[in-house]
Design brief:
By secondary structure, this protein is of the alpha+beta class. It contains two helices and eleven strands. It is elongated.
């Protein structure tokens, strides 16, 4: 899976320290389930960002690469992991009208959600007894964090997850069939077959 975006239902706050304006909050929360569909969900494991925070990461508005709020390389975006998740602070450029407009929208509560853009490096897949599947994202390459008006999963991300789930189930079914052939050749009976995806 390449370049994923994920929305996070947490609130930002604004700060005015003697004219130095900033926006801060959590861009990701650990061990919190994010539902893609009723039968597919994800969570982000603690330390998933540990190896990527030294990279050059941007803060954007609505994932728009032309609306850069801050950048770790420039020191205008600060990111760190704590026990709750990925926390960040963006220093607002007083000469940037887009940044000032966003600051005021966050201050009024008109914009209060965020999203992250990343590549998945490592993850764990868990097929649950109720038929649902859950992915735990264990390691990522983080490229950007965004303040968003309507954070949401992209349809392409949901489709990719569905294909991934179905492919795993197909492989499990094929492996079961191979075991059944071996048992038949040896005159033993095997367990019930796993359910195939429709």
């Amino acid at each position: 899976m390449k370049y994923e975006t994920r929305s996070v239902p947490v609130e930002f706050i604004t700060r005015d320290d003697g004219g130095d304006l900033s926006i801060e909050g959590y861009f990701a929360v650990f061990n919190s389930n994010y539902d893609l569909t009723p039968d597919m969900s994800e969570s982000i494991a603690p330390h998933a960002f540990a190896e990527t925070l030294s990279g050059d990461i941007r803060a954007l508005i609505n994932h728009d690469t032309t609306l850069v709020l801050g950048r770790t390389k420039a020191g205008t975006l600060q990111l760190r992991e704590d026990e709750r998740g990925l926390w960040g602070r963006v220093t607002i450029n007083p000469n940037d009208g887009d940044a000032l407009n966003l600051y005021e929208r966050v201050k009024r509560g008109d914009v209060d959600q965020c999203s992250i853009g990343f590549d998945i490096v490592e993850e764990k897949t868990d097929f649950r007894d109720d038929g649902s599947v859950h992915w735990t994202i264990e390691k990522v390459n983080l490229w950007e964090v965004s303040c968003c008006t309507f954070p949401a999963y992209k349809e392409t991300s949901i489709s990719a997850r569905a294909e991934q789930r179905d492919e795993i189930k197909r492989r499990e079914l094929m492996a079961w069939k191979e075991k059944q052939k071996e048992r038949l050749n040896h005159g033993t009976e095997g367990p019930d077959a796993p359910e195939a995806s429709e």
